[in-house]
Design goal:
This protein is an alpha/beta fold. The protein has a single domain, classed as UDP-N-acetylmuramoyl-L-alanine:D-glutamate ligase (3-Layer(aba) Sandwich), CATH 3.40.1190. The chain is built from ten helices and 13 strands. Helix 5 links the parallel strand 9 and strand 10. Helix 1 crosses helix 8, helix 6 packs across helix 7 and helix 9 packs across helix 10. The protein is globular, with a radius of gyration of 18 Å. The termini are far apart.
Length: 318
């Protein structure tokens, strides 16, 4: 019996977001916008917070700076109910942070300081506690300079030896990232990248082909998020399927993929089939996209279930 439902390991970042941003003012001039927020974000951080909002017992495993931004991230996570005893501090670099001027259509260019993400690793003394969860989620490969590669493989391998379910996502993937990801693939139960990142690594464009590319290299279930076109799922057993996205007014797409992963993890903990889990995950992402930041309008499991059952779905492009 594990102590936690999910241990979310890897990339945590402070996001400072503003919307809607039409332009960067010239010189020292100012424009007025509607909203500014600071949020816990990142391929592990946003997933952890969203899992906690959705009712899972969640542990954060990361490193942040010994600074006011690290204070904010830890305090915010504790407020959501995330357990933070494995949030380590470093005085060597600042907390990872991103400034995101969000465009009216929800797109968001980024200005990013890697900071603490680059020095994160799971110390041997923390390993057993980091793996004391039913689901082990690793997020952020590509930006975790000290953890990427052999340390990630070692952790995932040990997770599988302990009988844990593993989920995996990355960030800013390119063809070179695949060298870091490939050794991890045999130890990944649920691989949840965006279609853009998966395509970059596989050198393919068709979701069926991309999913098979990763499954042939060890992934059990390939789940490719397609943005406004929904999700493509190639399960370990059974036929592959598409699910459409929900038809909503998008405020901000920050954290949609991370929140989708949280929805999949909720489904795993509840023992749902993969199609139900993916539909719920799509509703989680929709709730996030309706607001600003990586938690957006996500408020509870019950509210998200209502959204899953009531929101209209988009028609896929031909």
């Amino acid at each position: 019996m594990t102590s936690f439902d999910v241990s979310s390991i890897g990339f945590y970042v402070l996001d400072i977001l503003g919307r809607p941003v039409l332009r960067i003012p010239e010189g020292g001039k100012a424009d007025y916008i509607e909203e500014i927020r600071m949020t816990v974000a990142g391929t592990a951080g946003a997933t952890a917070v969203d899992c906690a909002i959705l009712g899972l017992k969640t542990r954060a495993v990361t490193t942040v700076g010994d600074d006011e931004m690290g204070d904010f991230l830890e305090a915010k996570m504790r407020k959501f109910g995330v357990e933070c005893s494995l949030v380590r501090r470093t005085a060597d670099v600042q907390t990872s942070a991103t400034i995101l001027p969000v465009r009216p259509n929800g797109e968001r260019p980024a200005l990013h300081v890697p900071g603490s993400a680059a020095v994160f690793n799971v110390a041997e003394v923390d390993m057993d506690a980091a793996l004391d969860a039913s689901v082990i989620h690793v997020g952020g490969t590509g930006l975790l300079r000290s953890f990427d590669g052999a340390p990630t493989v070692r952790l995932l391998k040990k997770a599988k030896q302990l009988g844990r379910i593993t989920t995996f996502d990355l960030i800013q993937a390119n063809p070179e990232t695949f060298a870091l990801v490939e050794p991890c693939l045999p130890f990944i139960d649920y691989f949840v990248p965006s279609i853009e990142e998966a395509s970059e690594m596989a050198g393919l464009s068709d979701p069926h082909g991309i999913a098979e590319f990763f499954k042939k290299r060890g992934v059990k279930n390939a789940i490719l998020t397609l943005g406004a076109d929904g999700v493509f799922v190639s399960p370990e057993h059974g036929e592959a399927f598409y699910l459409p996205a929900f038809d909503i007014k998008v405020s901000d797409t920050t954290g949609c993929g991370d929140s989708f992963t949280a929805g999949i993890i909720v489904g795993l903990i509840k023992g749902w089939d993969l199609k139900t889990s993916a539909k719920f995950a799509s509703a989680v992402a929709a709730k996030v996209a309706m607001g600003l930041g990586s938690d957006g309008k996500l408020v509870s499991f019950e509210d998200t279930m209502t959204a899953m059952q009531s929101l209209p779905v988009r028609q896929r492009a031909a």
